Amino acid sequence: MKILLVEPNFPIPPKSKNHRDFLPVGLLKLASYHRAKRDEVKLIRGNQQFPDFYPNQVKITSLFTYWSNYVWGSVKFYKENYPKAKVIVGGIYASLMPEHCKQSGCDDVFVGVDERVEKFKPAYDLVDVDYQIVHTSRGCLRKCKFCGTWKIEPKFTSKKSIKDEICSNRVIFYDNNLLANPHITDILEELKNAKHNGRVVYSESQCGIDGRLLTPELAKLLKQARFLNPRIAWDHGYEQRYMIKKQIDMLVNAGYPAKDIYVFMIYNYEPDYYEMLKKLKQCKRWGVQIADCRYRPLKQTFDNYNPRKRQTNKEYYIHPRWTDRQIKLFRKKVRQQNIMIRHGFDHYIHELERQGARRREEKL
Ligand code: SF4
């Protein structure tokens, strides 16, 4: 069999291709699964034709529901160019909105996690990365209403150990709720002692850590396991500040500098702009950075947000308690405050941001 694995042309900036937040890890596991069956596999980003490769199956991944039009574009392209191939869509959007996805014209929609494929190691040789992805658990114990995890992965499962999986000096956890793994202490102990090619291993988590599960012992172990940039979630109102402060204190006491700690905040959501400004100022007082996330409903199928234009609900989702102007202003204030925290200034200097951008460009 010839299998074409497709990541649609999602609007990921070129410099973020292969970024740890966007690696199509499901496709990489599928590649290993098919190779084990002696199938011929090709991984492609976007829509392309191949004169010497006519696939029997085209497997397309999907991400956020509001990027569904990129998935539809790929389905159309591959159906037209390879009419004899079976086109199957899986991933987040396909799992959350299978009926909508089916209307793209694909032959099949795969919902949820494929247990047969899950046990395979991602085929990292198909991408150029200096890290590895690890899931120590699937699902989540909680049911936050803005999150689709518990719908896509309704069963919580966990691993006891990951030491035999380590094949890089940089491990990125793709767990939804890393600390919910009942074996997390053992796993962090493994990481603390892990070496690859004679060098120690660093780790990070793509998702925030669940601060309600944090203890002083776990915070210390995270630090000893060289876990970088911990992000804790502050999902609701200003009244949660005492709880958040305790979580930050645990991390600071474990040895993390405050500026390396991030507080994850969802905006354009229930707490209004003025409440979010209070949270923002509180984070400034604590000296921690903010990882912000603009809320979109789980079944939103488009997002044409443009930070440089005035827009309406027709172009992207605006929560009834927010306005377009407030959304853009909040984003800007977060960015400026993070720059100030990183550089240790008490006011924002535009030149610093320009210098940072220049340095980032030079590095590319
Ligand atoms: S804790 Fe995180 S992963 Fe779990 S349901 Fe809430 S937002 Fe989703």
Summarize the structure.
The chain is an alpha/beta fold and 364 residues long. The protein has helices at 25-36, 68-81, 92-96, 98-102, 115-118, 149-152, 184-193, 216-224, 241-253, 273-286, 324-343, 350-363; strands at residues 2-7, 40-45, 57-60, 86-89, 108-109, 132-134, 137-138, 157-158, 170-173, 195-196, 199-200, 202-205, 231-233, 262-267, 289-294. The model has no long low-confidence stretch (mean pLDDT 93).
Protein traits:
5-stranded parallel sheet; 364 residues; 15% strand; 15 strands; Rossmann fold; 12 helices; 2 domains
Overall description:
It is a single chain. This protein is of the alpha/beta class and 364 residues long. It folds into two domains: 2-116, 3-Layer(aba) Sandwich (Rossmann fold), CATH 3.40.50.280; 120-363. Helices cover 34% and strands 15% of the residues. The protein contains twelve helices and 15 strands. It has helices spanning 25-36, 68-81, 92-96, 98-102, 115-118, 149-152, 184-193, 216-224, 241-253, 273-286, 324-343, 350-363; strands at 2-7, 40-45, 57-60, 86-89, 108-109, 132-134, 137-138, 157-158, 170-173, 195-196, 199-200, 202-205, 231-233, 262-267, 289-294. The strands form five sheets. Strands 2-1-3-4-5 form a five-stranded parallel β-sheet, with helices on both faces. Strands 6-9-12 form a three-stranded parallel β-sheet, with no helix packed on it. Strands 13-14-15 form a three-stranded parallel β-sheet. The longest helix has 20 residues, at 324-343. It is globular, with a radius of gyration of 21 Å. It binds iron/sulfur cluster. Iron/sulfur cluster binds next to helix 6.
